[in-house]
Design brief:
By secondary structure, the protein is α/β, with parallel strands linked by helices. The protein has one domain: NAD(P)-binding Rossmann-like Domain (Rossmann fold), CATH 3.40.50.720. The protein is built from nine helices and seven strands; from the N terminus they run βαβαβαβαβααβαααβ. It binds nicotinamide-adenine-dinucleotide (NAD). Nicotinamide-adenine-dinucleotide binds next to helix 1 and helix 7.
């Protein structure tokens, strides 16, 4: 099993869903974790308690990821609690709502870009100084199958923002290569039992997504966590600027 002992990680949007799965995966491999949340303090406290039961240190840190000021403060709190930072996982993101481009308000468009691409930019920016002090620094960003295939109905701007994260990841990998900071993205397909799909996808759409995956099942948060744990490991040290598709083979459908 991958050994992440003595690893200090910050996972954004880790109160539930994929973020919680990633936080627990990192902790199970030996990492201490700062659990970021936006508004669900109870869910974040539950993730913290689950990590502590695994014998690792954890704390909850709050910020609206659309605010640079709050993100700077949140990253500083995480670094202070952990005593440094080795792994940053920018998981927080949101579809906001399914709206066709022809009907989308300018404000909605800006919000979708800001909570996905903007949040990834400002969280990475806030963490770079601390990561430069690490012996094995890693950044992992959250793209999506939507970045490749344009997403489902009413998710054009979400797909564009997730494609932007893919480009951002490639560019940042080049920029931070000299610092030995690896930067990679994961691009999940349909991950079941998440607020994302429970809120925005019909049962019929969820069945279609399962049929579209050659592997013949939906993804689980553990599937995403396993890839993130690998990207955080010493073994992944020569892997940077990549996007790992975790979609059961769905792409390019
Ligand atoms: N569920 C899927 O199938 C799927 C597929 C591909 C990509 N993703 C991506 O995975 C990530 C996690 O999604 P999920 O499915 O677990 O859904 P989720 O809604 O449970 O998680 C989103 C997280 O982002 C946080 N967040 C959103 N807006 C925020 C804000 N303004 N400030 C602070 N935190 C904020 C939420 O608190 C939440 O913890 C997202 O980036 C999503 O786009 C999900």
């Amino acid at each position: 099993m991958t050994d992440l002992s003595d690893t200090r990680a910050l996972v954004t949007g880790a109160g539930h869903g994929i973020g919680r799965g990633i936080a627990l995966g990192l902790a199970a491999a030996g990492a201490d974790v700062a659990v970021h949340y936006g508004s669900s303090a109870d869910a974040a406290a539950e993730t913290v308690s689950m990590i502590e039961k695994l014998g690792r240190k954890a704390t909850a840190v709050q910020a609206d990821v659309t605010s640079a000021e709050q993100v700077d403060r949140m990253v500083a709190e995480a670094v202070s609690f952990l005593g440094g930072l080795d792994v940053l996982v920018c998981n927080a993101g949101h579809l906001i709502g399914r709206v066709p481009v022809a009907e989308m308000a300018e404000e909605h468009y800006q919000r979708v870009v800001d909570v996905n691409l903007g949040a990834t930019f400002r969280t990475c920016k806030a963490a770079i100084e601390a990561l430069r002090e690490s012996d094995r620094p890693r950044i992992i960003t959250m793209s999506s199958l939507a970045a490749h295939n344009g997403g489902g109905p009413g998710s054009v701007i979400y797909a564009a923002a997730k494609a932007g994260i893919r480009g951002f990841t490639k560019g940042l990998a080049k920029e931070l290569g000299p610092d030995k900071i690896t930067v990679n993205a994961v691009a999940p397909g349909y991950i079941a039992d998440t607020a994302f799909h429970n809120t925005f996808s019909t049962a019929e759409a969820q069945q279609t997504m399962i049929r579209n995956a050659p592997i013949g099942r939906s993804g689980q948060v553990e599937d995403v966590a396993a890839a993130v744990v690998f990207l955080a490991s010493a073994e992944a040290g020569y892997l940077t600027g990549s996007t790992l598709d975790i979609d059961g083979g769905t792409w390019p459908r």
